[in-house]
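Predict structure. Chain length: 277.
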Amino acid sequence: MQNQTSPLILTFGAADPIGAVGVHADLAVFSALRCHGLSVTTSLLIGDSARVEDQQHVDPDWVSDQARVVLEDVQVSAFKVGAVDNMEHLSSIAEVVSDYPDAPLILDPFGSQFPEQPEEEDPEELLTVLRQLLVPQATLLMLSQVELGRLAETWREMNNGETVADDAQHLIDLGCEYVLVTGTQARSGRPDNSMRANTLYGASGVLRHDHWRHLAGPFIGCGGTLSAAIAAHMAQGADAPEAVELAEQFLFGALTHARRIGMGKFVPNPFFNLQQA
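Prediction complete.
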């Protein structure tokens, strides 16, 4: 018997029966990258490899209590916060992570595959709470170019020609250290749509602009795989630019070896390296 030596990462997110998204997918990525995952379940999903049909939110007190009990027992090396579409959950999570400012927080808060929010949740108010409570605490915020535009609507009076870089800088000015925007236009010089790119912004501007060949798919869980891999590498001491590069390489491998486990979309395979050995 021996003490735990691999980094511990606490992830907040949904429980997915398929394991393609949410905390189950995160735990698999952490394990593949030699970290031990701990999880706080924020909702229970009903879905398969094609779609998520419905979800049941966990009581906000349970979200907080799950995290507090674990954190009183162990010391974590990083936090990951996945898709959150409940304002009380946002508040609970923000309060918990505020007590551990030394652990990097990777924030990947959008879940496009999730059902629409209940009528009692105002989407703009939800994004405003996200921007006010969690974004300032984030070490790295990951979101697509479309999601960045949605979030930017919460502070813009009107569209005055702001660029992606302007919006990323606004979030950095709020306290977020890095913003990774996925789905940006690849500066590859190729006229077709065969390339995809991610752009990492820091206080000094663009730190990375990585592009690669587009894989057709269709896939489910790509974004969560990328953010979980970033969290794993940062938990092991990598800085954000290095963690993003390593995580992108990991994601490409997981997608290249993706599996169709049902009749729906392909699921990234986080254990592709082990299966090749």
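Summary: The first helix runs from residue 22 to 32.
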